[in-house]
Specification:
Length: 232
């Protein structure tokens, strides 16, 4: 691999607050970034418009929106006809795995990213998982990231041939939402372009009451600034 290839990175960009921040971090670290988003049948599909805006603003080398419909599997309030939980207390958010968990989502997304990165002759993936304000999702933990990285080095041509060692970068994994916002603001992230709500209205306005909205609003409140997202 030449030096230019080694500096490419595939960044998972959902259009949310965390992914906009990691994209800015990857750019700040000097990577040529390639944004990857998924149209997976999510009820909050409006986030894909945010992903496009975020990627365009960041000047990614390429942005791919991958169609990968997970609705036939169901099992989540985001991909099935199941009500999205609203107005849960912070104590409730810390207890158990919520119904908004999409089975194996990050494993699926990272696997697709891994394939694209190998074609790009990249060895770096960026994902905005967070183990502090993470709503109990098992695929947002450091153990998962470490295990996936190990798997990637076993399952790819470049890993087996020893031409590269895969790195799954999760720079926000130990940060609170407020810390993530502060970091993004320092890098010039425009959070008005992002979208976090699990159950927006037909105009894309956030509900302000789902788990994701409440965690986001709490983060902005702790930073001491108004959330620029549009709410119902």
């Amino acid at each position: 691999m030449n030096e230019h290839s080694r500096r490419r990175a595939v960044v998972l960009v959902s259009g949310g607050l965390d992914s906009a921040t990691i994209l800015a971090i990857a750019k700040d670290l000097g990577y040529e970034t390639y944004g990857l988003s998924f149209d997976y049948g999510q009820r909050h599909r409006f986030e894909l418009e945010s992903a496009r805006r975020v990627c365009q603003s960041a000047g990614v080398a390429q942005h791919v929106v991958m169609p990968l419909d997970l609705r036939p599997f169901g099992g989540s309030a985001l991909t099935s006809d199941i009500d999205v939980p609203k107005n849960r207390s912070m104590e409730d958010l810390d207890s158990g795995i919520p119904i908004t968990y999409v089975p194996a989502r990050n494993t699926i997304f990272l696997s697709v990213a891994l394939g694209w990165a190998e074609v790009l002759q990249s060895k770096d993936l960026f994902i905005g998982v967070n183990a502090i304000d993470y709503s109990g999702y098992p695929d947002c933990r450091p153990e998962f990231i470490s295990a996936f990285c190990h798997m990637a080095n076993l399952a790819t041509k470049v890993g087996v041939e020893g031409n590269a060692h895969w790195h799954v970068h999760a720079p926000l994994i130990a940060n609170s939402k407020a810390e993530i916002i502060r970091r993004g603001l320092a890098l010039g992230v425009d959070y008005s372009q992002t979208h976090s709500c699990y159950d927006p209205d037909e105009n894309g306005r956030s509900c302000g009451r789902c788990d994701s909205c409440m965690i986001r609003l709490k983060g902005f409140a702790e930073v001491g600034i108004k959330d620029p997202a549009q709410y119902v």
